[in-house]
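DM between two lab members

TW: hey, do you still have the non-specific serine/threonine protein kinase entry open?
JB: yeah, one sec
JB: this one, 228 aa:
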Amino acid sequence: MRDGHFLKTSCGSPNYAAPEVISGKLYAGPEVDVWSCGVILYALLCGTLPFDDENIPNLFKKIKGGIYTLPSHLSPGSRDLIPRMLVVDPMKRMTIPEIRQHPWFQAHLPRYLAVPPPDSMQQAKKIDEEILQEVIRMGFDRNHLVESLRNRIQNEGTVAYYLLLDNLFRVSSGYLGAEFQESMESGFNRIHPNEPTVPAVGHRLTGYADYQTMGLRGLERKWALGLQ
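TW: and the structure you got?
JB:
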């Protein structure tokens, strides 16, 4: 898969699939993702799926026709957002940047979910030595990691690097709010009720869970970061 190229594989759960996917047409990833996110948002707010039928042909007919109903209990904001995401024509479907600017999405938005400022995104092009050392301590080879970062290769090492880099930008720019720190500490206390929360010391990644405290340093390469 390359940027700018259309996709053609029909995959995933039919209830969440966009019309262009189940029709076997060429499709673009972002537009399909917006449709699926619209289905998920509907399910979260309504407790049921917008498109559902035990008969697959009937299910596909509903999806292709955009046939669904909005419960009356939904707020005006969500009633405006969901139909914009579940548009049958992918060219008229709401984009991800537009969703993030929608009033419903912006209301009570936690600071740590906000988009980092542009200057932080520019800094991401440079390799941060301190973060690099953090990833190396997880058990990754320095030369291979640096080469992967320079060539924009996605693997376990680069995923770990960019997760730490993203956290650093959010902390340094104030986007990682106290509510995120509190949620991390409360989660730790539920797992280790008799152990005090130990803050990370010796590097700039304030607010990030300490690897040694969480028992992750000993795992080294076994920590797959969701990639297998």
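TW: got it. Residues 197-228 have pLDDT under 50 and may be disordered. The chain has twelve helices and no strands.
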